[in-house]
């Protein structure tokens, strides 16, 4: 229980930029709620989830995701209307046509980098054809689908504008903020050693996360001298890793010469901070190093910090580190067959839930079909993880909607009261949604479930059966999806984890043998592989039927690899 509480606290802990992201989401959702309620644009819950899908880590990714979502929305609405035009009087052909379009969309999602277009096409086409069982008039259905297009496109535009104008997450700003955060930790360690007090705690895992964060933002930042910035980024990562090693040392009494050297390094870090993110030149005047006989651990760390600062000062002559090379993907016929199987399983699960809720004459649980499309992920472990996250988020959002229905809605009489009730729930969901990939989908589903129950009409909602039906639909979709993915061509990632662990061991060994010219790229590749192994391990552990007794051994191996990388980062 204590471990679970500690994990929850870690997932909900603030980090730089998290509150700004929440404010941007809140501003976008506020504009969308007011516009939809004032202009009576239906499908407000769909509009809100499009806000969350559009908002990304930085403005560049937000613009890219927005364009992709707009294209996918237009294509999906057009496909849905065409199906209705030709097969409105033939339900079997209409459902088969929707299944074929969804199959193509899921295949595109698995096989192309712009897979979000295929995902949105499959989701809205399946949703649109399920509406035919609710609306009998073709004209009403056509208008409803056109409104779906409006409800999905305009929130994307609103979000892109707000993300760009309101406290924008510019890649250059995020890069400079990450520089400052890491240099702050370096300076705190030096200050503690100079003052002779206990050094702040510094987990070695922060070194890898910091190195990857710098490289991720560097890839999007538009700077004048890319090579200089890349070399300075590597220097900051070296300083950060050296600070992590300094934090591990027991308290020691530095000599006067070492105090002078640490003060000079700290001053140089402060000077480097002002140059980072700008094309300004950084000059570093070194203090005299400690006496040659001082071959203690902290002396070696200080020498490494001095070398990193020298590298930053001569960064204009350095070349950029090569980018991380992604793992080679399967090509040719096996990859196409895998994509076809994946699309078939996703559509089969969706159609199975359609048959079930149609046979039960329970249209309120039609969210089961959308759940099957949403949970469509390549591996069984990833599908299970997303399904559990969707269920937890829906439970939290449904409980919030139930409490609001009983205690708050009877007292509402204006849109101000509606916003006062809705925005706190959206804020909590947004706080979770901008967190780590392990839990962020819980926040999205929490917001969506609340919006489905409370924002489905243009007046107060007092019917709680909607909440029940959403939960039942999600449970049905989750059960059917896991059953289909388990019994039909299950894609397990145990072998992929073993391969990734082997590559990680080789990468760690390569770091130990690399020279100064290639050490930065080797470290970056190793940290990326370590992160990939952790993600794979997390997914594999959630695969149904997985009872690997070596789970603890794998976790220990990853921890040891992380420790070796952190130590090697301060070696050069």
Brief description of this entry?
This protein folds into four domains: 15-169; 171-317, no CATH class; 341-491, no CATH class; 495-569.
Polypeptide structure, described:
The protein is mainly α and 572 residues long. It folds into four domains: 15-169; 171-317, no CATH class; 341-491, no CATH class; 495-569. Helix content is 73%, strand content 0%. It contains 21 helices and no strands. The protein has helices spanning 2-12, 18-39, 44-54, 59-87, 91-111, 115-130, 138-165, 171-195, 205-220, 226-248, 256-275, 297-313, 333-359, 367-374, 380-407, 415-433, 440-454, 465-487, 494-513, 519-540, 551-569. The radius of gyration is 27 Å and the shape is elongated. Residues 317-332 have low confidence and may be disordered.
């Amino acid at each position: 229980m204590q471990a679970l509480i500690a994990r929850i606290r870690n997932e909900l802990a603030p980090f730089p930029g998290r509150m700004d992201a929440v404010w941007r989401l809140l501003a976008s959702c506020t504009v969308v709620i007011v516009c939809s309620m004032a202009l009576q644009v239906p499908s407000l819950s769909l509009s809100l989830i499009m806000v969350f899908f559009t908002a990304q880590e930085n403005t560049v990714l937000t613009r890219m995701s927005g364009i992709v979502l707009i294209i996918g929305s237009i294509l999906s609405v057009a496909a849905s209307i065409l199906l209705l035009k030709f097969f409105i009087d033939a339900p079997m052909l209409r459902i088969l046509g929707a299944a074929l379009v969804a199959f193509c969309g899921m295949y595109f999602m698995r096989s192309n980098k712009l897979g979000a277009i295929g995902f949105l096409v499959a989701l809205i086409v399946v949703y649109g054809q399920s509406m035919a069982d609710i609306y009998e008039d073709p004209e009403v259905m056509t208008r409803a689908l056109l409104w779906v297009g409006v409800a999905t496109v305009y929130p994307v535009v609103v979000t892109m504008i707000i993300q760009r104008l309101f406290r924008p997450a510019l890649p250059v700003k995020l890069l400079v903020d990450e520089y400052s955060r890491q240099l702050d930790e370096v300076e705190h360690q030096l200050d503690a050693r100079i003052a002779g007090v206990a050094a702040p705690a510094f987990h070695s895992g922060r070194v890898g996360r910091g190195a990857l964060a710098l490289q991720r933002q560097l890839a999007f930042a538009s700077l004048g001298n890319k090579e200089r910035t890349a070399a300075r980024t590597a220097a900051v990562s070296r300083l950060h890793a050296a600070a992590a090693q300094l934090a591990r040392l027991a308290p020691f009494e530095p000599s006067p010469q070492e105090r002078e050297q640490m003060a000079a390094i700290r001053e140089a870090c402060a000077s480097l901070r002002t140059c980072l993110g700008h094309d300004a030149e950084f000059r570093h005047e070194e203090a005299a190093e400690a006496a040659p006989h001082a071959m203690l651990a902290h002396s070696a760390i200080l020498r490494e910090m001095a070398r990193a600062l020298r590298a930053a000062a001569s960064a204009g002559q350095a070349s950029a580190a090569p980018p991380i090379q992604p793992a080679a993907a399967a090509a040719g016929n096996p990859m196409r067959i895998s994509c076809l199987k994946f699309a078939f399983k996703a559509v089969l699960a969706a159609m199975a839930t359609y048959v079930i809720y149609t046979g039960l004459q329970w249209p309120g649980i039609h969210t089961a079909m959308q759940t099957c499309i949403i949970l469509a992920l390549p591996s069984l472990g990833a599908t299970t993880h997303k399904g559990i996250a969707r269920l937890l988020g829906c439970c939290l959002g449904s409980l919030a909607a139930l409490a609001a229905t009983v205690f708050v809605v009877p007292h509402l009489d204006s849109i101000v009261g509606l916003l006062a009730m809705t925005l706190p729930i959206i804020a909590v969901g947004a706080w979770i949604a901008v967190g780590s990939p392990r839990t962020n989908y819980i926040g999205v589903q929490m917001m969506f479930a609340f919006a489905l129950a409370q924002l489905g009409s243009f007046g107060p909602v007092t019917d709680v059966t909607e909440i029940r039906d959403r939960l039942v639909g999600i449970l049905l979709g989750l059960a059917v999806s896991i059953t289909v993915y388990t019994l039909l061509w299950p894609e397990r990632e145990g072998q992929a984890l073993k391969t990734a662990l082997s590559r990680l061991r080789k990468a760690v060994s390569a770091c130990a043998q690399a020279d100064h010219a290639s050490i930065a790229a080797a470290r970056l590749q190793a940290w990326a592989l370590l992160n990939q192994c952790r993600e794979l391990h997390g997914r594999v552990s959630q695969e149904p039927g997985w009872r690997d007794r070596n789970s603890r051994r794998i976790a220990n191996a990853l921890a040891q690899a992380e420790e070796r990388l952190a130590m090697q980062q301060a070696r050069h």
